[in-house]
Write a structure and sequence with these properties.
Helices cover 13% and strands 37% of the residues. By secondary structure, the protein is mostly beta strands. It starts with a strand and ends in a 12-residue tail after the last strand.
Length: 268
């Protein structure tokens, strides 16, 4: 089994990067693994930590319409170059955490994706250089308020709500280029999304090189590589599970987002 790199919070509140062991204990590292973190003598027992998103990116750069069948189901032509947008770091949430359905939206969709984790500073890279900058792979769900995406004519609000970027559960270093990505909704036995990652229009190293010629990618940043056909709506109470062969599965449940009350000013 490939080594699984995780980020956790201990019962004392400390954050750690580590290696997940077969018994679910964590062998703690002294730094993020892409910053040459080394194994320490500290071990966290299986019941003594909370699993977090496996990295804390400064930014999440996502790619739209990177599978031809998904581009067709969304309408319009296939992009001739990568179509980029950004999800804020505050959208990142963990495996098993809730996706909060915002009251501003009437249509929230799942979008299962392969995510790339950048390991080194990446600026103006060639494709060959970009390939070496990809430190590892994890799973993402590019949750989208579809009605707001159409209404706004740009994607920041629709893609940017807190909890709209589930990420995890861990990072692996290697991945079969023909690995299958699938999404499962609730207890349906058949996937609602299914495709090999080789169906991407623009391959991972192409995406990273292209992005690096627009903005600097920092260690720990995340690139979402696009979603296959089959995106669809989520309802409160739904469970959505994204699987990538060779990584594992990312599962989240949809909950109501309750906004805090607006304070009423006291009369003077």
């Amino acid at each position: 089994m490939a080594q699984r790199y995780v980020r956790v919070q201990s019962q004392s509140g400390q954050l750690h990067y580590g290696l997940l062991q077969p018994d679910r204990s964590i062998q703690v590292l002294d730094a993020p693994p892409w910053l040459q973190g080394q194994v320490t003598e500290t071990t966290l027992p299986a019941d003594s930590y909370q699993l977090l998103a496996p990295c804390a990116p400064s930014k999440v750069i996502a790619v739209g319409k990177n599978y031809a069948k998904h581009a067709a189901e969304m309408g319009g032509d296939l992009p001739t170059e990568p179509l980029l947008f950004i999800k804020p770091s505050t959208a990142v949430t963990a495996d098993r955490a809730s996706i909060f359905y915002p009251p501003q939206s009437q249509r929230v969709d799942y979008e299962g994706e392969l995510a790339l984790v950048i390991g080194e500073l990446c600026v103006d890279c060639t494709e060959a250089e970009a390939r070496e900058k990809i430190w590892g792979y994890t799973i993402a769900n590019d949750v989208t308020a579809r009605d707001l995406q159409r209404r706004d004519a740009q994607w920041t609000r629709a893609k940017g709500f807190d909890s709209f970027c589930p990420l995890g559960p861990w990072i692996v270093r290697e991945l079969n280029p023909e690995a299958q990505i699938q999404s499962f909704l609730n207890d349906l036995p058949e996937p609602v999304q299914s495709a090999p990652i080789s169906d991407m229009v623009f391959k991972p190293e192409v995406l990273v090189a292209y992005i690096s010629q627009v903005m600097t990618l920092l260690p720990g940043d995340v690139v979402l590589t696009g979603t296959p056909a089959g995106v669809g709506p989520l309802q409160v109470g739904d469970r959505i599970r994204i699987e990538v062969e060779g990584i594992g599965s990312l599962e989240n449940t949809v909950a109501v987002r309750i906004l805090p009350p607006i304070a009423t000013p006291l009369p003077e």
